[in-house]
Amino acid sequence: MPIRLDKIVVDDFKRIESLEIDLQPVTALVGGNTSGKSSALQAAQLGVSILQAALRGFRANGTPDFAGTVANDAVLFRPTELLLDLRRGGSATQNLGYAITYRGFDLDANVEKQIKIEIRRGKNANIAITREGDDDFAAALANSDHPFSIFTPGLSGIPIREEWRTKGAMDAAVMHGDANLYLRTVLDHLFTRDLDEMARVAWRRDRNIDLLPDGGWKTFSQLLERCYPGTRVIVSHVAHRDRYVNVEAETTDTKVTLDMASTGMLQVIQIIAYACFYSPPLLLLDEPDAHLHADSQARLYDALRNVAAETGTRVLLASHSPQLIQRLMYDPDAAVIWMSTGAKVPVDDAQRPAIPILMTLGALSVGADAFDPARRVILMTEDKLPKPVTALAKANGAPDNLAVLSYNGCGNLPAARLLANMITDMRPDARIILHRDRDFRTEQEMQFELSTAASERQRNGVTRVTEIFTPFNDVEHSFAQSEHLREVFNELDPALIDAAITDVTAFKRDEFVNAARVARDQIFSSLYDVPRKRAKPEWAASEMPDNAPPTNAFLPANGLTPVSFQHTHGKRLMDGLRPKIHQHVGGASQLSNNRIYAVTDHLLAQNWVDAFTVE
């Protein structure tokens, strides 16, 4: 039964409550590390593996015979040791379980097909299976000789040697999710299945794709040629003599053993080899772009599209690659699904361009909040951890439903600004506050950077974006103030708080001095040593000096003078203060950490108040 798979529905599985995946020839799942991407791939493979375990054979009338229960260990693909533990919210019971549904199209009969598999607890801790739908479709999914789906992780390389395996062992491996361990074996099986001895000799001698007989090896070679022009794969293995499979990759100017080929080439070879050997209706790829450079990701995109077009295989993948997603987003034969906390994030056409930028910033996991119409103020922060900056914002008038989106460090500031501009286009009702750490800047330096950024936004017609620097060197610096800590830990003697600050400042003196030197060197090279910045009108308007202030102005006068609170580094200071305070407070360390980031009046800063109270 030739099948085109059109939809997968997952219910109550791991992080997923209910998820419908409408499949295109190539469908990509994107999202943060806990968004549910891998759960969706695992569910798709698990349903097939459970049906394989349940199929006992065929009755005399040709109908499939499925068992109602199977042992846990009989299922080849197991994302966790006990499959009943995969139910969302707790282990499966006799009444509560999880379900995977497949909907497709029988290309011969020209009819739609559907099968829903529900998994619950059976007797003696076995897995109870109920099916609803077309049993002939279920039998096609359960065909162990022709695996319906293949699940493989991204390759980071392959072993130097690989023992040859039978097709049965290889079939089991692809259901286990170990397809990446058998790359040479599948190439040998593909080569020997589709070419007779004369054709194999001719291929090893001439490498001429046009002379190959029609079949999987020819399709494989053609697809590889499209991605890596001039590249040929040469398989040398005699079953009764060779324990290990010898495979070489030959380009127009080099010839290497397969393990010496680039990771990008290996990834492409793996994908098209399995697609051409098995022609599976579904190919599941978990981050095939991992470890690949941008050029290799472009070739990977070509391989995915060509595999889908030439073999009819539907490709479902999870990706962290902005470059790959950028291409797939505008491909009419592809789909990109943004996931967060196990569900799809609704994205309209206007919002789609933000996805690759959010991926670049590593902000997909929280980026969904930026498009929530209930959240009208969006704080973009350069900090990875949102708790401190959220508390600082709320202390200065930010709303309770503030959306906080991390852009992970000032190195991504240009991308963060671009994303902020895009969000204002997509969310005409929202205001964006872009947080930056002061990092030992002077008042004039901060004013210059804010003014030049504001002028750039004005030239581009961007409104409702405001940039703000922290009151001290970073966010944590505000929470290290003695007055704030005294109020938060009012059960402690204030002298203990002051002594802790003094001790940590003395102990970390060298760290603070080095942090100031590094920061001032960066400011010199990025501001004072750039003639075009000096030529900007904002330079004079901000009263920037001709020469950078001496670094010594940010350091203690001598070895006997302590580092001033103003010139400490807040994150390093807080790293030392937390354990000292916890010694006096006791209890769970997390509770005292949470108290540090409470809201008090001592956190007020006029520039932050102004940013969050503007209407």
Automatic annotation (TrEMBL):
Domain ATPase AAA-type core: 26-325
InterPro entries per the UniProt record, alphabetical: ATPase_AAA_core, Bact_Antivir_Def_Nuclease, P-loop_NTPase
A GO molecular-function descriptor: ATP binding
SUPFAM superfamilies, sorted: P-loop containing nucleoside triphosphate hydrolases
Protein name: ATPase AAA-type core domain-containing protein
Source organism per UniProt: Pseudomonas synxantha
